[in-house]
């Protein structure tokens, strides 16, 4: 049952992305994007990322998608045929490059024959398979994140195995809030300033020219000075 | 075969490839932006897959939240630029806004 629901969400995601990438009508492409975002929300829920799923729903479906549709409406003459997206001459190039990227990614993930040599702490070298290392010792030697993981695991409600399976957990919002104000405090502040500056800048860029009334008002002001 | 890391990685790779295709083949700047959003979502799906099945428990979700914030900022600024390009060139085809070419 779990698998079936996962495959439904995966199909929604990929199908919406296909419509977004291939449909000639850009409004239909925007609706495909809606399906993609909703499917990704489902994938997040299946991976026990509840806070992130809600964030995705609010920000992407409720914000970015509406913004994109506003962009479509503001830059197209809806009554004309201009709304369709003409296929370009670079289509074959694009198909070639995206297929190449897909093959490279799949090879990087699943080329189970590929192996690499790591140095163990006692000075010896050891050859391990790349794909197996993901499954047996995932990111065990990652320099970042180790403290956060240990703290989360130690203050947990159950054993480490239960935490990893998402059982006995009260959701991730609590831990994410704690981490935002401890380990990730600097990135949190920096990214909030970046967001503020970007939004103010976007408002400035998209602002209309001053209306004639304002022009007259400023002229009158200049005349009085 | 039960759901594992590989399912999330395949989904992310497909989303990424489709986003690359949309970015390169579209003749409308807004459709190109949709491709960028697909690519950012592919990165997020990979982060969440590794967060659940790859052993970086909560760190993947933190990274994904930052990606979402940056995506929101990018969409806002890009839409503002697109509106100005449309005002100046009366077109949203990126190939026609070529004043800086010479």
Annotation keywords:
heterodimer, A: 225 residues, mainly alpha, two-stranded antiparallel ribbon, 10 helices, 2 strands, 4% strand, extended, B: 102 residues, elongated
N- to C-terminal distance of chain A: 77 Å
Q: Which two chains form the greatest contact, residue counts included?
A: A-B, 90 and 72 residues
C-alpha-based Rg of chain A, rounded? 25 Å
Portion in helices of chain A? 55-70%
Number of strands of chain A: 2
Strand sequence of the main sheet of chain A, in spatial order? Answer: 1-2
Report the average pLDDT across residues of chain A: 75
| Number of DSSP-assigned strands of chain B | 0
How is the topology of this model organized?
The complex is a heterodimer of chains A (225) and B (102).
Chain A: H1 2-22, H2 26-46, H3 50-75, H4 91-110, E1 115-119, E2 125-129, H5 130-136, H6 146-154, H7 160-165, H8 173-181, H9 185-206, H10 212-224
Antiparallel strand pairs in A: 1-2
Helix pairs in contact in A: 1-2, 2-3
Chain B: H1 5-25, H2 29-53, H3 59-89
Helix pairs in contact in B: 1-2, 2-3
Descriptive account of the structure:
The complex is a heterodimer of chains A (225) and B (102). Chain A is mostly helical and 225 residues long. Chain A is built from ten helices and two strands, in the order H-H-H-H-E-E-H-H-H-H-H-H. In chain A, a hairpin with a 5-residue loop joins strand 1 and strand 2. The longest helix of chain A has 26 residues, at 50-75. Chain A starts with a helix and ends with a helix. The relative contact order of chain A is 0.05. Mean pLDDT of chain A is 75; it is low at 79-84 and 132-145. Chain B is an all-alpha fold and 102 residues long. The longest helix of chain B has 31 residues, at 59-89. The radius of gyration of chain B is 17 Å and the shape is elongated. Chain B starts with a helix and ends in a 13-residue tail after the last helix. At the A-B interface, helix 1, helix 2, helix 3, helix 4 and helix 6 of A face helix 1, helix 2 and helix 3 of B.
């Amino acid at each position: 049952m779990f698998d079936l629901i996962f495959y439904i969400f995966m199909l929604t995601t990929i199908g919406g992305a296909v419509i977004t990438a291939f449909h000639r009508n850009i409004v239909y492409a925007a609706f495909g994007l809606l399906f993609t975002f909703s499917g990704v929300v489902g994938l997040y829920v299946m991976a026990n990322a509840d806070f992130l799923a809600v964030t995705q729903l609010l920000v992407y479906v409720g914000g970015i998608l509406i913004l994109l549709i506003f962009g479509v409406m503001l830059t197209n003459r809806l009554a004309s045929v201009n709304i369709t997206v003409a296929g370009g001459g670079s289509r074959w190039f694009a198909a070639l490059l995206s297929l190449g990227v897909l093959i490279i990614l799949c090879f990087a993930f699943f080329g189970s024959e590929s192996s690499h040599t790591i140095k163990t702490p006692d000075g010896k070298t050891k050859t391990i398979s790349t794909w197996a290392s993901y499954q047996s010792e995932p990111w065990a030697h990652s320099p970042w994140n180790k403290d956060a993981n240990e703290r989360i695991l130690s203050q947990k409600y159950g054993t480490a195995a239960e935490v990893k399976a998402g059982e006995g957990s009260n959701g991730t919002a609590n831990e994410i809030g704690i981490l935002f104000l401890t380990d990730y405090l600097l990135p949190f502040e920096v990214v909030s300033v970046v967001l503020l500056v970007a939004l103010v800048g976007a408002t400035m860029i998209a602002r209309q020219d001053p209306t004639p009334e304002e022009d007259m008002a400023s002229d009158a002001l200049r005349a009085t000075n | 075969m039960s759901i594992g890391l590989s399912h999330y990685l395949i989904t992310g790779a497909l989303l990424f490839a489709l986003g690359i295709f949309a970015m390169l083949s579209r003749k409308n700047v807004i459709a190109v932006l949709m491709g960028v959003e697909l690519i950012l979502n592919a990165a997020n799906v990979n982060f969440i897959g590794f967060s659940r099945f790859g052993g970086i428990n909560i760190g993947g979700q933190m990274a994904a939240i930052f990606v979402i914030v940056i995506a929101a900022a990018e969409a806002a600024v890009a839409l503002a630029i697109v509106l100005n390009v449309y005002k100046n060139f009366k077109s949203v085809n990126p190939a026609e806004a070529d004043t800086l070419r010479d």
